[in-house]
Design a protein that fits this description.
The complex is a heterodimer of chains A (80) and B (406).
Chain A (H helix, E strand, L loop, with lengths): L3 H15 L7 H11 L6 H13 L4 E5 L1 E5 L10
Antiparallel strand pairs in A: 1-2
Helix pairs in contact in A: 1-3, 2-3
Chain B lengths: L8 H5 L8 H9 L3 H16 L4 E4 L11 E6 L13 E4 L9 H14 L3 E4 L6 E4 L6 H10 L15 E2 L13 H11 L1 H5 L9 E4 L8 H4 L2 E7 L4 E2 L1 H9 L4 H4 L9 E3 L4 E3 L9 H5 L4 E2 L4 E7 L13 E7 L6 H17 L6 H8 L1 H7 L28 H10 L1
Parallel strand pairs in B: 6-7, 7-8
Antiparallel strand pairs in B: 1-2, 2-3, 3-5, 4-5, 8-13, 9-12, 10-11, 13-14
Classes of the chains: A alpha+beta (80), B alpha+beta (406).
The structure holds iron/sulfur cluster (2 copies).
Chain lengths: 80, 406
């Protein structure tokens, strides 16, 4: 089985690459990981990987009609 | 500061009349809070110009959590600097909304120090809603709340803060311990509450009896409504007292029974319990004479919602009767199966009720491995997608085809 940390890295890469083009939901990332690591990753590992990313501050949850995972950044709407 | 500094003729109209007024409350808060004062100013401008001057902030929150904070910024920060940031915080309320005055004072003191001082007790999901703070205060607020035993509630595509009626704590009609289940579910689904991973929100509401004081049938994706499966308990002497005391039992009780299952012959009340719809009407009218039976549990319903992306829905029966006993393993397994399916197949911002409408109740039940039952059908023949395979014998289909061909 693949470790949660390795899955977290792969997820982080996906989020980073799609930044500015498409917002990714946690389910999008989980589905992608299940496909990439066919049979070697389960949903629980994906859940743990997301937890690792968020608790470590590498990703944050955002809400724009639905909830997404993004790299922390200053949002356009923010006032100083 | 001296008090509200804006002239607010439009908002002042909303102070008139005998009912409580949010304008009055904001004005009171404005005596101490520049944020509340600028809120009055911006709101008056919005009413005058018919434009809402708020921007949505989608990224603010506290470390590790994906819900509980709703970001808001003013579009006019130079004109109304007090509401440049005006984030809302949802705090998970205690089950049944029981507080000590000390706990409430603690929240209010913290909020006057770190926010606008304005609260909404409570939001429609049930949370304590703290209105208006700035980004830099979010972590300190979270730290103070958690130090006193509170936690943030849900927001976004997650399990929203579960809520329940006061149940057995105060109400004799409670058919199960609503507060115990609500607390258990809140603790069991912490991950799902704080880490949004669903297509959209998912609400649990627990009502102890069919009076449904938390409006679960209309306002939750999964409603747990207390009910009983034996006979209504009748105290004949008390029935007589109601009648002797002037109750028009025929017009007020018997003729209002939706099951048409009550008879009054002038001396004795009879109930055909097999036809009872468990609506609580007769029990509400004669609380000393009638009571729910002793074999109590809950009916689980699924799919209601208020109108947001699409129109409003009421819940449909999923499990007609289940004993509500900890650790609620069977129920939690069904919930996990529903979430697995909905996360796999649901569209973004599709509530579970809308999802069921799209895929069909029959397919949904099959996928979550729940047997279709007659109680799930609101009206005869309303749902043509539930098939009772037991009614068909092998060869029936061939015969049908032959008949059609012939
Ligand atoms: S829903 Fe029923 S049990 Fe709960 S408070 Fe209302 S009347 Fe009582
Ligand atoms: S609970 Fe409702 S349906 Fe049942 S007997 Fe009373 S009034 Fe009739």
């Amino acid at each position: 089985m693949v470790s949660a940390s390795e899955v977290a890295e792969a997820m982080y890469k996906m989020v980073k690459e799609s930044m500015g083009q498409k917002k990714l939901k946690p389910t999008d990332l989980t589905k992608a990981m299940l496909e990439i690591y066919e049979g070697r990753v389960d949903k629980a590992t994906c859940k743990a990987a997301i937890k690792e990313l968020v608790n470590g501050g590498k990703c944050v949850y955002t809400y724009f009609g639905g909830s997404y995972l993004e790299i922390p950044h200053r949002e356009g709407a923010a006032n100083d | 500061m001296a008090g509200a500094t804006y002239k607010t003729p439009k908002l002042d109209e909303l102070e008139k009349g005998p009912w409580p007024s949010f304008v009055k409350e904001i004005k009171m808060a404005a005596r101490r809070s520049p944020m509340a004062n600028d809120l009055l100013g911006q709101l008056e401008k919005s009413y005058t110009e018919k434009i809402g001057y708020w921007k949505h902030g989608g990224i603010v929150g506290v470390m590790g959590y994906g819900g509980g904070v709703i970001g808001r910024y003013s579009q006019l920060p130079e004109e109304f600097p007090g509401v440049s940031h005006f984030h809302t915080i949802r705090v998970n309320q205690p089950a049944g909304w029981f507080y000590t005055s000390k706990a409430l004072r603690g929240i209010c003191d913290m909020w006057e120090k770190r926010g606008s001082g304005l609260t909404n007790m409570h939001g429609s999901t049930g949370d304590i809603v703290l209105l208006g703070t700035v980004t830099d205060q979010l972590e300190p607020i979270f730290a103070e709340l958690t130090a006193t035993g509170f936690d943030l509630g849900g927001s976004g595509s997650d399990v929203r803060t579960p809520s329940c009626c006061c149940g057995k704590a105060r109400c004799e009609w409670a058919c199960y311990d609503t507060m115990a289940v609500c607390y258990d579910f809140t603790m069991s689904f912490q991950d799902e509450l704080h880490r949004p991973a669903f297509p959209y929100k998912y609400k649990f509401k627990f009502a102890g009896c069919p009076n449904d004081c938390v409006a679960s049938v209309a306002r939750s994706d999964m409603s747990f409504i207390g009910t009983w499966r034996d006979d209504i308990k009748v105290n004949a002497e008390e029935v007589k007292k109601y009648v002797d005391g002037g109750l028009d039992i025929i017009n007020n009780v018997v003729l209002n029974c939706p099951g048409k299952c009550m008879k009054w012959d002038g001396k004795k009340l009879e109930i055909d319990n097999d036809s009872c719809r468990h609506c609580m009407h007769c029990i509400n009218v004669m609380p000393k004479a009638l009571a729910p039976g002793d074999d109590r549990g809950a009916c689980i319903l699924i799919g209601s919602k208020a109108p947001i992306v699409e129109g409003a829905l009421l819940s449909s029966v999923l499990i007609p009767f289940i004993k509500m006993e900890p650790p609620y393993t069977e129920i939690k397994e069904i919930i996990e199966r529903i979430w697995d399916l909905w996360c796999e197949e649901g569209k973004a911002r599709e509530r579970v009720g809308e999802f069921i409408q799209r895929v069909g109740m029959g397919n949904f039940l099959e996928a979550i491995e729940v047997e279709p039952l007659a109680e799930m059908v609101a009206h005869p023949r309303e749902n043509p997608y539930v098939f009772y395979e037991d009614y068909f014998e092998e060869g029936d289909e061939d015969e049908d085809e032959e008949e059609e061909e012939g």
